[in-house]
């Protein structure tokens, strides 16, 4: 939604609503239903998925969903930026999945905060306007989320920092390769 407030598009209100609905269903409803299914069939013990073993299948599923969403948006003109966002998320989650093989867990909360910050910085470079308030707010929010994750002992400092930096650099990498 923030994207539509900050970046002018040629989409009308109905098109924006359809697009936001597609994104909401793909990134919230479908994963939630799949997690409920995974819990029912005992692939995961809790929705928190603390262990790497419990995170593997949900993260792999999210890689596929974000990739498919990026491909779907690729077919719609005037929203290249959103395609970048979802491919960057797919790339970051794929890297998270690869890190599992090295027994490294990362904070997915901080990945999303890093992606948001990096995404608006890439947009700033692309459009010649740096979105300073947006970037500063996302950095402050990332600090608050990181502090909360550490306070809850959900992650180590390494997992929090790794999550943020994987997320932060993924929009830059995807933008460079697209």
What's the main sheet like?
none
How many domains would you count in the coordinates?
1
| Helical segment count | 7
Contiguous uncertain segments of 5+ residues: none
Overview of the structural elements:
With 178 residues, the chain is mainly α. Helix 5 packs antiparallel against helix 6 and helix 5 packs parallel to helix 7. It starts with a helix and ends with a helix. It has one domain. The mean pLDDT is 93. The radius of gyration is 16 Å and the shape is globular.
Strand-helix topology:
Layout: H1 2-6, H2 13-40, H3 52-74, H4 80-100, H5 108-127, H6 132-151, H7 157-177
Helix pairs in contact: 2-3, 3-4, 4-5, 4-7, 5-6, 5-7, 6-7
What are its keywords?
single chain; 178 residues; mainly alpha; 7 helices; 0% strand; membrane; transmembrane; transmembrane helix; PAP2 family protein
Tell me briefly what this model is.
This is PAP2 family protein. The protein has 178 residues and is mainly α. 78% of the residues lie in helices and 0% in strands.
